[in-house]
Specification:
Layout: H1 2-30, E1 35-37, E2 51-58, E3 64-66, E4 77-86, E5 89-99, E6 118-126, E7 148-150, H2 155-162, E8 170-173, H3 193-233
Helix pairs in contact: 1-3
Length: 235
């Protein structure tokens, strides 16, 4: 019986996870229904994927390349994070995906043609990409080498590389905005709701199978017990 209860609990947990993922997808779709002006002191109050506009200046000389970021088609490359100075607060703007060079030493040029003057950018608020499994911290590249390549960094590691505090969210630059690269934004789900539902069905099937086994075993036990009693009654 304990196994049946466990299977049912795991099935319900997977259904709950599917509901959470669907809510995240709905939140992503709802993010563009309104655009709000971004103020650094109010960024924590805004929901994930909220569409915002921010005015500031790019720090062209200190950009970060997020490593191990495949394109929508699976090609190896980087995502480009460019700090935007918003009245003294630094917002990381994800300007999109660029392909990797023929060797690790051949980094993409992400500065040519990028204007450091004042600008207004639009996009969605999001979090830094996170790995499924994180093995230790990034090893800092020697100071002075930019752009800086980092593999799934934390905000603390980004701040250490830049030498300044940054806002706790990043901005996914709209595909229609200039000075960006390949941008195909979607709700970032390692496991979609459909797969969670599939897992739930499996756990419920295990529970049903366990019930059948439990019933069959107990019926056979009762049959044997009845048979033994009948044998005892025979003259």
């Amino acid at each position: 019986m304990a196994g049946i209860a466990l299977f049912l609990r795991l099935g319900m947990w997977q259904l709950d996870r599917a509901g959470q993922k669907r809510a995240l997808e709905a939140q992503f779709r709802a993010g563009t229904q309104s655009t709000v002006a971004l103020h650094a002191d109010a960024i924590d109050a805004l929901p994930r994927y909220q569409h915002v506009r921010a005015t500031g200046r790019y720090d062209v000389e200190h950009q970060i390349l997020l490593d191990n970021m495949p394109s929508a088609q699976g090609r190896p490359g980087y995502r480009v994070l460019t700090p935007l100075d918003i009245d003294g607060a630094w917002l990381l703007v994800d300007r999109g995906w660029v392909p990797a060079g023929p060797t690790r030493a051949d980094l993409p040029d992400v500065t040519t043609g990028l204007d450091a003057g004042p600008r207004t950018v639009k996009g969605r608020l999001d979090e830094l990409p996170r790995p499924g499994l994180r093995l230790g911290e990034n090893v800092d590249v020697p100071q002075g080498e930019w752009p800086r390549v980092q593999n799934f960094p934390t905000m603390a590691e980004v701040e250490r590389a830049l030498g300044r505090p940054v806002l706790p969210r990043i901005l996914l630059l709209d595909p229609t905005e200039p000075d960006g690269y390949e941008r195909v934004w979607e709700a970032r789900l390692r496991v979609g709701p459909e797969r969670h539902i599939g897992y739930a069905v499996q756990w419920f099937a295990f529970a049903a199978l366990a019930v059948i086994v439990f019933v069959v075993v107990n019926l056979r036990r009762d049959e044997k017990r009845i048979g033994t009693k009948d044998d005892d009654l025979d003259p």
